[in-house]
């Protein structure tokens, strides 16, 4: 079966490529800013579903994967609007523990399969000096990432510890994805059974 990733995220593509499975990339065009969900897990599951459903409707015979990630500390910390916004987010995260929620939706219209779930991971930040925050912002890395950091890049230097799923912090919970694929499609991404 064809597998489609309903995302433009290079990180999500890299994670699927790491598994050495064949997939197509077809980003959805949903507006992520207008969300009516309240709790963090509802936000990521709702947006993941909307992304996957939009593409699944156009590709009913394919397995479509949608995912969404947010950083949460007293409030949702989305992608920063500018460097100043990134600074305030990183200052808020400094020395504290925050939650990263990543939703995942796997849909196949022709088989009437719609699975949605999420993973919550705790991330502990080091105490950051103003110089460190500024140096990180100057890399340009924070500007297109939820919470203004990427754990897979130089943002790794900000992180003291994580409790949970590292790959969900990167943007795609691979273990959860494999479980859904096994449960719903009898496809094991590790053994290649069913592919």
Question: Keywords, please?
Answer:
single chain; 195 residues; Maf protein; seven-stranded mixed beta sheet; cytoplasm; nucleotide metabolism; Maf-like; ITPase-like_fam
Secondary-structure blueprint of this entry?
Elements: E1 3-5, H1 10-18, E2 24-25, H2 40-58, E3 63-72, E4 76-77, H3 83-93, E5 97-108, E6 113-125, H4 130-138, E7 159-163, H5 166-170, H6 174-185
Parallel strand pairs: 1-2, 1-3
Antiparallel strand pairs: 3-4, 3-5, 5-6, 6-7
Helix pairs in contact: 3-4
Walkthrough of the structure:
With 195 residues, this protein is of the alpha/beta class. The protein has one domain: Maf protein (Alpha-Beta Complex). It has helices at 10-18, 40-58, 83-93, 130-138, 166-170, 174-185; strands at residues 3-5, 24-25, 63-72, 76-77, 97-108, 113-125, 159-163. Strands 1, 2, 3, 4, 5, 6 and 7 form a seven-stranded mixed sheet that branches. Helix 3 packs across helix 4. Strand 3 and strand 4 form a beta hairpin. The longest helix is centred in the N-terminal third of the chain and has 19 residues, at 40-58. It has six helices and seven strands. It is 33% helix and 24% strand. The model has no long low-confidence stretch (mean pLDDT 95).
């Amino acid at each position: 079966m064809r597998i489609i990733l309903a995302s433009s995220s290079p990180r999500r593509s890299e994670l699927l490529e790491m598994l050495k499975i064949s997939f197509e990339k077809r980003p959805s065009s949903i507006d992520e800013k207008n969300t009516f969900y309240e709790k963090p897990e509802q936000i990521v599951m709702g947006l993941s579903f909307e992304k996957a459903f939009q593409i699944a409707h156009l590709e009913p015979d394919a397995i479509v994967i949608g995912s969404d990630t947010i950083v949460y500390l007293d409030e949702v910390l989305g992608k920063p609007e500018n460097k100043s916004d990134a600074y305030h987010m990183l200052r808020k995260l400094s020395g504290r523990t925050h939650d990263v929620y990543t939703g995942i939706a796997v849909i196949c219209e022709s088989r009437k399969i719609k699975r949605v779930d999420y993973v919550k991971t705790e991330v502990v930040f080091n105490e950051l000096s103003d110089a460190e925050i500024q140096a990180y912002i100057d890399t340009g890395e924070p500007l297109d990432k939820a919470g203004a950091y990427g754990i897979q890049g130089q943002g790794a230097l900000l992180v003291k510890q994580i409790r949970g799923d590292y790959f969900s912090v990167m943007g795609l919970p691979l273990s959860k994805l494999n479980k859904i694929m096994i449960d719903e499609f009898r496809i094991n991404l590790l053994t290649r059974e069913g592919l």
